[in-house]
Specification:
alpha/beta, five-stranded parallel sheet, three-stranded antiparallel sheet
């Protein structure tokens, strides 16, 4: 399950900034062939057409996926500026990246739990880490009624059943080490029949994750390279066996000055992403930043896009405070560190 073939033998053979890639088997083709043959021999192939089609697609694509890591410890200064309240977590990620350098070892990151109030940018952090490492990201919202099935899939015996997000990310995706974000893990509601966090007990352990069995596909996949980031508002609602498998970081709301930096960065990012943005001023006005800094980081992008549009409707290429949604100028939506 864990076999891999190096595409780049060492970090010195790849320019800094380009990821090093290895090919890693995320499942055994023999296991899939046996399952498909049994399904065909049982005469139930039509009844389980989706399952048979999935097995065939797995065989057609093959078991190899990219396992990527940065070549050299990347310059993370822009991330520290963009995510000033995530300094300790970024330090932790940097340590793991450094350990994987100058060797054939894969990048291994201890599962991360981000504790903090809504809107401080926890999910945005996960997207930035996926971009930094050169891999993909998948989001699993645990507040959903079907959260448990989202992780581990549901039995093919059930109508409308399908594979879980872990299986889909590895088998349908390109990477053996995607970032999977388990969002609002503290809101997973367990009942007497099913524990929605049950799959995580094995997925967060490297050894048992090597042979994770999705309930729909019923074949082992190697999930040991998955980079896990979980988010929560309350630590007390998370079972101790799950907590003990993760590095826990408390994420405080950004200070007012840090919030201004985040808003300024997002302004520049949106401006640079669009051709129309080049017509706007390179930097936002101070009074615009003052209002933006009262908003939760996750809401800033929507507000800025609205403000860009309002400025354009007024035939201006400079954003003014009045262009921002009215709620920004009202009561602050989040607390700040003093």
């Amino acid at each position: 399950m864990s076999s891999s073939n190096s595409l780049v033998t060492s970090s010195s053979s790849s320019p800094i900034g380009l990821p090093i890639a290895q090919m890693r088997n995320v499942f055994k083709a023999d296991d899939v062939e046996r399952k498909l043959h049994r399904l065909q021999a049982s005469g139930a192939e039509r009844e389980h057409e989706i399952l048979a089609t999935m097995y065939q697609r797995m065989l057609d694509r093959g078991p190899e996926r990219f396992a990527v890591k940065p070549s050299g410890v990347p310059d993370m200064a822009p991330l520290y500026d963009l995510l000033p309240n995530f300094g300790e977590v970024l330090d932790d990620v940097k340590r793991h990246v450094a350990l994987s350098q100058d060797s054939r070892d894969s990048l291994e990151v201890t599962p991360i739990l981000l504790l903090g109030p809504p809107g401080v940018g926890k999910t945005h952090f996960a997207r930035q880490i996926a971009d930094l490492l050169g891999t993909s990201m998948s989001l699993v919202p645990m507040s959903s009624m079907t959260a448990g099935w989202l992780l581990s899939g549901s039995s093919s015996q059930w109508k409308g059943s399908k594979p879980g997000r872990v299986f889909e990310s590895l088998v349908e995706g390109q990477y053996a080490n995607p970032v999977i974000v388990v969002d609002e893990i503290d809101k997973a509601s367990a009942d007497a029949q099913y524990d929605p966090l049950g799959a995580l007990y094995s997925l967060l352990e490297h050894d048992t994750a090597q042979n994770f069995v999705d309930e729909f596909a019923d074949v082992p996949v190697d999930a040991s390279q998955v980079i896990w980031i979980t988010t929560a508002n309350r630590e007390s609602a998370i079972p101790d066996p799950i907590l003990n498998r993760m590095n826990v970081f408390e994420i405080a709301p950004p200070s007012p000055e840090a919030a201004r930096k985040i808003a300024a960065h997002l302004y520049r990012s949106i401006r640079n992403e669009h051709d129309w943005g080049q017509r706007f001023e390179q930097e936002p006005r101070d009074d615009v930043l003052d209002l933006m800094a009262t908003q939760a980081p996750r809401e800033m992008r929507r507000s800025l896009v609205t403000a860009f549009g309002n400025a354009r409707l007024a035939n201006r290429y400079e954003m003014e405070p009045g262009d921002l949604p009215k709620a920004v100028g009202g009561k602050s939506r989040m607390g700040f560190l003093q």
